[in-house]
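User: Please predict the structure of the protein below. I'd like the answer in structure-token form so I can feed it into my own downstream comparison script.

Assistant: Understood. Taking the following sequence of 231 residues as input:
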Amino acid sequence: MSERPRAVCLLSGGLDSSACLAFARKEGFECYALSFDYGQRHRAELEAAARVAADLGAARHLVVSFDLRAIGGSALTADLDVPKARPAEVIGLGIPITYVPARNTIFLSFALAWAEVLGASDIFIGVNAIDYSGYPDCRPEYIEAFERMAALATKAAVEGRTRVRIHTPLIRLSKAEIVRLAAALGVDFRLTVSCYDPDEQGRPCGACDSCLLRLKGFQQAGLKDPLEYRS
């Protein structure tokens, strides 16, 4: 039986969450990867998450299914156009239509529940507050608030058996720094998918905010993104 501490790692299959999983592994955790099939239009990320979890040696990869299309309100869960080719100075201003209402709160709640079942005190999430798309649930103050709530919300915490820590190793890194970190940690970029609007073959569009931020990160890091972009 492994003596390493267990950690739940949220894994979308994108660049940031893959780097976060690799970081948790480097820190000595036995990693339990958690992904979500929530009705998102970019479902290619689920296949990517499975590839990354296997490649980085996750002890288990769990996919939880629920349908946020019933709520909608986002270009990722409703029949709304994904913004394309937005100027760099516009990305990060305001909250874009690709924001999924309360998504990280939902995701972290599942992670908290699984962590309690696993007897884990640590949750890793690859949120970033530097090169990002303006999502309110990626900010440090949000993560700090969730961690405080977690101390009140579980049997294990109330009984004093654990206190959950939310790890955000990427939160203050630029996208270029994340690319360099991922490369140093051995992330295979070919396995990842970051695009909000990939085609049926999983090829990224090259024009959505996520693609543009990723491409900018690789360019500034002095590395080549191995993915084949449609444009």
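That's the full token string. Residues 103-118 form the longest helix (16 residues).
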